[in-house]
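Teaching note: in complex prediction, the entire set of molecules is handled at once rather than each chain in isolation. The prompt given to students was simply: 'Predict the structure of this complex.' The entities are:
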Amino acid sequence: MASCDYADDIIAEALDGLALTYPEHVSWHPESNVISRANRAVNKVGLVSGGGSGHEPLHAGLVGTGMLDAAVCGAVFASPKSEQIQAGTRIAHSGAGVLHIVKNYTGDVLNFEIAAELVSDDGIGLDTVIVDDDLASHGASDGPGRRGTAAVVIVEKICGALAESGADLATVAARGRDVVLRSRSLALALDACTHPGESRPAFELAADEVEFGIGIHGERGVSRIPFASADELVEQLTTPLAGELELERGQSVIAIINGLGGAHPLELAVIARQVHRLLDARGIVIARSLVGSYVTSLDMHGVSITLTVADDQLVTACDAPVRTPNLTR
Amino acid sequence: MASCDYADDIIAEALDGLALTYPEHVSWHPESNVISRANRAVNKVGLVSGGGSGHEPLHAGLVGTGMLDAAVCGAVFASPKSEQIQAGTRIAHSGAGVLHIVKNYTGDVLNFEIAAELVSDDGIGLDTVIVDDDLASHGASDGPGRRGTAAVVIVEKICGALAESGADLATVAARGRDVVLRSRSLALALDACTHPGESRPAFELAADEVEFGIGIHGERGVSRIPFASADELVEQLTTPLAGELELERGQSVIAIINGLGGAHPLELAVIARQVHRLLDARGIVIARSLVGSYVTSLDMHGVSITLTVADDQLVTACDAPVRTPNLTR
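The expected output is the structure of the full assembly:
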């Protein structure tokens, strides 16, 4: 990296701080802003993800045994450069090829594609899983399709468990794509995030308004709905997800109740309770869940819910051990 | 509990949600708002903490193997009632007595004292560790002394490891008191928290002001200082701590870089880096650290730093396994 702007400085300092805090899990590569596993794997499918920063702990905090081999960190809300991704891919390659796990945004997809071409000269076998779970952006005719949001954590967890168990690249990639098909997310916010260097939030909301169907970059949602109780708002997120996934009585799901940066653990726990109650009423079991702030949008006061239709192998993979800075379960 | 007000409803729903999310770790007792270990220990010193809610994941998220046996949860920023603490103490008692770990606030100390008297009739051996680590409230002549803040997490971790290893009540209590003596904390905030049901923050700050020496209940700090770079602000927290603890070259510490609710992981990582650099320049090693939001003050946008003078036994105890909802390291 030739020169750094202000936002790059923040990211570099934060990645340095992460590696100083968790030297047993991760190492920082300052020349590429890649966070890699401290103990490099041997002859294992390497998992690489990345994207713009501002979503922490995603992705750098999810590097370690059982999850990512490398996370490539762009500036805040900006795709990493293809040269960074190339560097991360080389670091992650330990003899069994590399899987790119990419959230579906134009810049990320393009730069990961360019990086894939760059590393093909190195003889590194490569495959890509595009994560596009955001139901709010489904069917938009003017964009690249559904956005990638918190389902990427489940993809990284499942693919990480498979790779750790010795599965080959084709198997890990196929299961990753299958997890994406099984997953949908929806989000809402009570307040927008404030971009670094800005003094005002990305959009303004009245106290009695909720932005529904938001993404993770401060973009506007698909509609503005009246403020309601937590239970009612959670129902407005959960019902469309259950419908889109065609959930039926007796099925089980993996759920992520995800804080977007400004959500308090008390709020997330109240929301988790309501998701349990709503799905229980439909005869659907939450087999495993994550409740916390895993995919943030800076300081946005909001929450996303992700549901993944489970099967026995997915549940087993969820229970495989992981040792990363921010996910150990 | 006879009747519940609005804040109690939130707490009960959140504790229900916590237990639904982590059934392998914790159980919720709705009659007392106690969170207990799912698998009750046998003939182990029981550890009980608690206090007002709004500080999550403290204390309910720190219940489980290797840490607390029970957390007693009051309303937001209000001490639990002595009857709740009595109930939690009975639940935590497995034959080897119970240790109360109490943050130093008048209401908490009083209600834990009353509960200790109530359970003495049950024949439960009981001891108490008062945690008073907040340097900002040191020497205040009109109050109960230094407030208890994030050092309580280290006390719970160290006492938890000792209790798990079979140490008796006197040993666990003595080590807990020793950890308190070795620990000091300082905090600052860029924005105050907003109490539930209120539309305005607990105090107002201009964009170029920082509240220094704040507590964890929205109370004002000891001074208002000019906004400065993260590195400069961290130095203003770290230098007084190092002085008060009389840290000398060659010593090592356990550190907590704690978000107060509205701090982003990027910010905490940048702060952690600077604490490493400042202590490194003094020849002091951070032997172990926690970086995250462990002791929050609702949505307060601030951070606290806690330093504990380490010795070999403390470092070993830090590495003992814990299995709780929100701390697994």
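Point out the following to students. The first helix of chain A runs from residue 6 to 21. The first strand of chain A starts at residue 26 and ends at 29.
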